[in-house]
Amino acid sequence: MSTNRKFMALALLLLTAGPTWAQTFTAKGVKIAYLNEGKGGPVVLVHGLFSSTFINWQLPGIVAELKKTHQVISLDLPGHGFSARPLDKEAYGIQMVDDVALLMDHLKIKKAHIVGYSLGGMITFKFMTKYPERVLSGTVCGMGWLQEGSLLQKFWDGAGKDIKLGPPPVMLESIQQLAVTEHHLKKIDLPVKVLIGSKDICKQLYVDPLRKVRKDWPVVEIKDADHLICIFNPQLRDEIAA
User: Among residues 143, 181, 206, 229, which one has the fewest Cβ atoms lying within 10 Å of its Cβ?
Assistant: First the structure.
């Protein structure tokens, strides 16, 4: 079995796994589980598709590293981890961006560093355009610029073909809501860093187009990492914590 298939099998087995850290709040009628640990400047972590706080941020040691110096907040997106699994597509798409803001409201956090991986990277970009006044900085990992009309299916095929699964249909239908126009991308006036595996399919699909529009944003390539195993690379953890 390939490394990617092993990882995805592990991810599916652990999708609802994790320690007893989970607290919950309700966002637009949907129960959202979240982690809140550490003290210092707030950092909000947003995980990727087929993932969770536990898989994306705790298992690789990213939460443990960040909470040494920061207040670390991480939510399980709807349909993932300990959060509810609504069948209504209105619970996904742009609502996932609003869920981040609602969690910050719940915790009385005015501004935070936002860090997202893959789907979480799409949410991070959209959050910076919708709620710029609430962002200290943005770190986008395993993702780049999701343009309007992007070929999302090519990404899903590359990420999920080994396990013959795609994203939940209601989620896939709503994800295009996370696209950002070139106009809004150019208007982002915040510190932004992009982290991408050197072998990640998203590098060509989404990061290379981003580089052409925002040459001022640093892009750090994680050596020999593809989309699925990059989160376990110590270089990614160190770049997020930097």
Answer: 181
CA distances (Å), origin 145, targets 75, 135, 151, 200, 203 = 22, 18, 12, 14, 10
Task: Extract the runs of DSSP E, i.e. beta strands, from 51-131.
Answer: 70-75, 112-117
Report the CATH number that the domain containing residue 220 is assigned in CATH: 3.40.50.1820
Query: Which residues form the domain of 227?
Result: 3-241
Burial of 66 (0-12, 13-18, 19+ CB in 10 A): buried
pLDDT tens across 105-120, in order? 999 999 999 999 999 9
Total count of domains within the chain = 1
> What is the per-residue pLDDT across 50-91, written as a single tens digit (0 to 9) for each?
899 999 999 999 999 999 999 999 999 999 999 999 988 899
**Close Cβ partners of 13 (under 8 Å, ≥ 6 residues apart):** none
